[in-house]
Amino acid sequence: MTSPKLKDVKGPWRYLAALGVVMAATLIAELLYRVLETTRLSMIFLAGVLVAAVWLGSGPAYVAAAAAFLIYNFYLVDPRFTLTFGSAEDVIVLAVFLIVAMLTGSLAGRVRDEARRAQDRARTTAALLEASRAFGASIGEEAVRERLATHLAEAAKGEAVIWDGSRALTHPAGVAPPADLIADVEAPADSVLTIAGGDWRARPLRAGDERLGVAAWRPLGPEAPEAEEASLMDVLVDLGAGALVRARLSEGQAEIQALARTEQLRNALLSSISHDLRTPLAAILASASSLKEFGGQFPPEVRDDLLATITEEAERLNLFVANLLDMTKLDGGALQVDSSPFSVREVIDRLTTRLTRRLGARRLVTQMGVGGLIARGDPVLLEQALSNVLENAIRFSPDGSEIAISVQGGASVRIEVTDAGPGVPEAELDLIFEKFYRAAHAAKHSQGTGLGLSIARGLTEAMGGAVNARPRADAPGLVVALRLPGEAAA
Amino acid sequence: MSGERLLLVDDEPQLIRALRPALGAAGYEVTTAESGQAALLQMAREPTDVVILDLGLPDLDGKEVIRRIREWSDVPILVLSARDLESEKIAALDLGADDFVNKPVGVGELLARIRAALRGRERRFASHAHLKSGELEINFASREVTLEGDDVRLTPREYDLVRTLARHAGRVVTHKQLIAAVWGPEANVDAQFVRVLVGQVRTKLEADSGSPKILLTEPGIGYRLRAED
């Protein structure tokens, strides 16, 4: 039958419009009557009925047919301006008008219905396409649920709720979900349920055997979705369930990747530690076995050099092991920190003597500030922290360059180590104190575990101090500054 | 055999400092390089008789260095590598390295490996029909294997295995190389087959096949026949 949704004219107005069409036909007939002086103008009225039927549908078409017949009869059929129901011609005209109105009206109605259905289908397809695109672009389950709620609410021209098993997500925000929504999680996957007094409709979100929650929607306003729209909702919900599964899978994959990265880091750490343990061991074993096999043949200076290598490498090994232990102690919070006044000057003197051989062809310059330079803390820990900073400086400074230590006293004691290495990009300055971090350009310096600076920071902070790094102002290089609480000179 | 030129490639200066005197005292002329590029340059500049190569170099992957050397030279290459990097060692050997030495290493073992590597090169140039390693003797011409003077009867496959190891006496031969030599280069054979074959040979050659003294296992990599006398 006629559709409630005519494009231009609605409801009772259609009948008025039908009468309007007949009036127009009458006017044209009157004009032709005057010009051509003929009364055989039933075709004009028939055309009016046709127009009314095509434009307005069957009901108005009948009205138009009746009106056209009456006017035609009254106005044109002799005797004019009387209604006559005598001749067979009258009956035929009325019958033709009615038949045309009926046939055309229903044909036009069908065409209109088809057109509307095609439009609906196009709209459904567009809505699904839009939804699937939106799902595809959503990252994470939460985003997919939000999109699903939005699209369901739009398609239902109302509100929608997505229940994920523990909480409800609504569109628009703040909608109160129906009370018995949760119970429907257990319903079979392909069912659509009507809940909460027929207002809400719900469909479980499922993919295979997996239960992902429930989607519920309620149309608001006068126009309830028709059958095709109901199936649009079903497809939307299933599409959403598929997208949820995909999101869940990709989240799982991200987790696996994170795990793989952790594994990678651990392997890097292990190979780094084993390298740092093995390198001094290799030098010690090579030197010791050389002395054993060829000791007699070597000139004294070669023997001394091999013995020095053994001593130094053993010390390096010891330092590395101590660092590893410190790191675990720092991590476990078991580090014993002595807090008493001590002379920073003495610590640095001890350190520079110890590091002389490590310097090779580099120079170490110390600039001591005035005063006692007394800090509060643990001299052993400071020595270790500083030696890590200096080892790092030596490692990155080329032969022939200068490494500077400067110390300034006061309310706090500030020790700065300036190297002549390649420096560290601004963005990485904080990262160099992270455990196992090594700047990108440091990769080619195969020594170093990425532990030294993080131990320096850990030790300094354990004494109530602080460490930071900044680029060297006058040349490429890095300045690492340690600050410790000061103590008035005794 | 003294005066051979030896190129030591390692990026740890302290290791070079520790090894150099002993290698010199053993009669080698030692040059050193701290990077892969420097090593390739040095080889192009001067003839080299044996290369000792650390796989972990700062600039080039050690395997890449081997590949580039093998493009034009069959100089013996002895790989210095950490014990835990089996796959690296196998890759290096399959690329054409002659042998490997685990780090850390004593100079005694290192010198023995250098000697084995150099002998392998000699064998390539001389028609070496005979091998003697302790009580084991092999005559390649007559395919005779004797142990303390007594004939050892080997199946053709067992003999192929022993011959391949003997040709590389003192040096490691990977599973892959053994499979290619015994079953053919196209053979699709598992390393397990090699293990079984080695087990058979050991029952014939070793006094106690549970603790072999002649046919030694390099775990995860391959096998090594005790060096020639």
Name the helicity range of chain A.
40-55%
Strand order of the largest sheet of chain A: 2-1-5-4-3
Q: Estimate the helix proportion of chain B, in percent.
A: 40-55%
Amount of beta strand of chain B: 15-25%
Helix and strand layout, with pairings?
The complex is a heterodimer of chains A (490) and B (229).
Chain A: H1 13-36, H2 42-56, H3 58-75, H4 88-137, H5 141-156, E1 158-163, E2 168-171, E3 193-195, E4 200-207, E5 210-219, H6 227-294, H7 300-332, E6 340-343, H8 344-359, E7 363-368, E8 374-377, H9 379-396, E9 402-408, E10 412-418, H10 452-462, E11 466-471, E12 478-485
Parallel strand pairs in A: 7-9
Antiparallel strand pairs in A: 1-2, 1-5, 3-4, 4-5, 6-8, 9-10, 10-12, 11-12
Chain B: E1 5-9, H1 13-25, E2 29-33, H2 36-45, E3 50-54, H3 62-70, E4 77-82, H4 86-94, E5 99-103, H5 107-125, E6 130-133, E7 136-139, E8 144-147, E9 150-151, H6 156-167, E10 172-174, H7 175-182, H8 191-205, E11 215-218, E12 222-225
Helix pairs in contact in B: 2-3, 6-8
